[in-house]
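User: Just a sanity check before I run the rest of the batch. Below are the structure tokens for the first item. I only need the designed sequence back.
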């Protein structure tokens, strides 16, 4: 019974060893010249602004971008198996998929209305 887990453990050990070796090699071989520009936070091309000590408001575009990614990622995950097995599923699955796409369209319309698709 335990013999079937040996290849899995072997693969896990190889993956962990590769990760540790990669990080260790980058620490030893990588450049160590730090300057002010490298130490600053990078916010997707937007210049970071200082916040008040009590915190500040984060622009809604960060959340809208994340929502766009999640909505369309989940949509593609659910649409792919449906497209593969379309012929054998029948009318019920077609109706369910239309309802799913309408639900996703509501999220898309919300993001569009909030300005998430306006890339400044």
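Assistant: Here's the designed sequence for the first item:
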């Amino acid at each position: 019974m335990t013999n079937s887990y040996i290849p899995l453990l072997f693969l896990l050990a190889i993956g962990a060893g590769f990760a540790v070796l990669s990080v260790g090699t980058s620490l030893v071989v990588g450049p160590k010249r730090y300057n002010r520009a490298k130490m600053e936070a990078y916010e997707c091309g937007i210049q970071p602004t200082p916040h008040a000590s009590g915190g500040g408001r984060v622009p809604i575009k960060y959340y809208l971008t994340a929502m766009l990614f999640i909505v369309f990622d989940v949509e593609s995950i659910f649409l792919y198996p449906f497209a593969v097995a379309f012929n054998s599923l029948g009318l019920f699955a077609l109706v369910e998929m239309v309802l799913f796409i309408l639900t996703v369209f509501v999220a898309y319309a919300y993001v569009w209305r909030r300005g998430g698709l306006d890339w400044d």
